[in-house]
Amino acid sequence: NAGVTQTPKFRILKIGQSMTLQCTQDMNHNYMYWYRQDPGMGLKLIYYSVGAGITDKGEVPNGYNVSRSTTEDFPLRLELAAPSQTSVYFCASSPRLAGGLAEQYFGPGTRLTVT
Amino acid sequence: GEDVEQSLFLSVREGDSSVINCTYTDSSSTYLYWYKQEPGAGLQLLTYIFSNMDMKQDQRLTVLLNKKDKHLSLRIADTQTGDSAIYFCAESNTDKLIFGTGTRLQVFP
């Protein structure tokens, strides 16, 4: 299994451009998550999904959109990039059952700079 | 609200023990977790503890849980340079994990 894969690894965007960060997992996990990690900070949850066709906002959803048309894929869309979105973005998945162990498996991250 | 707090930095000499502390707020968390993040990488689960336990040992790692004080700690025995990383504690909340701010552990020779 490849686990959780993310593309691209690095990207530089100009203000106002848009892009999609790709995330794919091959572990048949129902739960998937997008986080951002600013320098020297912890993780902030952007969006998450508990299954195909279901998405929900996290702590910092503004400026982002997601979709979950398949179990495997959970792309994150930035429509109008702003410097405040400069960050490292992590995708994670989990086989989580309600009330059970909720181990999350993380991808390697996408480092995004908006100038 | 939910908040998980950790100190930002810890510096230890190689061979000493490291203790990383965390306070959490959600007393209904079923599990509590420790994740490790090495430079340039994503987070990896290091260990976890079920909420009805007060201690868990796994080789060089010891997790202590004080539910009354909502305090979680991770002790690393015989700390090595390869243990240098950022360590995050996390509590579970329905469909999500709430992560702490992370503690950067630096090991010097």
Helix and strand element order of chain B: EEEEEEEEEEE
Number of helices of chain A: 0
Kindly report the average pLDDT value of chain A: 92
Range of helix content of chain B: under 10%
Separation of the first and last Cα atoms of chain A: 36 Å
List descriptors.
heterodimer; A: 115 residues; mainly beta; 7-stranded mixed beta sheet; 4-stranded antiparallel beta sheet; B: 109 residues; 6-stranded mixed beta sheet; 5-stranded antiparallel beta sheet; 11 strands; 0% helix; globular
What does this protein structure show overall?
The complex is a heterodimer of chains A (115) and B (109). Chain A is mostly beta strands. Chain A is built from no helices and eleven strands. Chain A has strands at residues 4-7, 10-13, 19-25, 31-37, 43-51, 54-57, 64-66, 76-78, 87-94, 105-106, 110-114. With 109 residues, chain B is mainly β. In chain B, strands 2, 4, 5, 9, 10 and 11 form a six-stranded mixed β-sheet that branches. Chain B has a five-stranded antiparallel β-sheet with strand order 1-3-8-7-6, with no helix packed on it. Chain B is globular, with a radius of gyration of 13 Å. The chains are: A mainly beta (115), B mainly beta (109). Chains A and B meet through β5 and β10 of A and β5 and β10 of B.
Blueprint of the fold:
The complex is a heterodimer of chains A (115) and B (109).
Chain A: E1 4-7, E2 10-13, E3 19-25, E4 31-37, E5 43-51, E6 54-57, E7 64-66, E8 76-78, E9 87-94, E10 105-106, E11 110-114
Parallel strand pairs in A: 2-11
Antiparallel strand pairs in A: 1-3, 3-8, 4-5, 4-9, 5-6, 7-8, 9-10, 9-11
Chain B: E1 5-6, E2 9-13, E3 18-23, E4 31-37, E5 43-50, E6 55-58, E7 61-66, E8 71-76, E9 85-93, E10 96-99, E11 103-108
Parallel strand pairs in B: 2-11
Antiparallel strand pairs in B: 1-3, 3-8, 4-5, 4-9, 6-7, 7-8, 9-10, 9-11
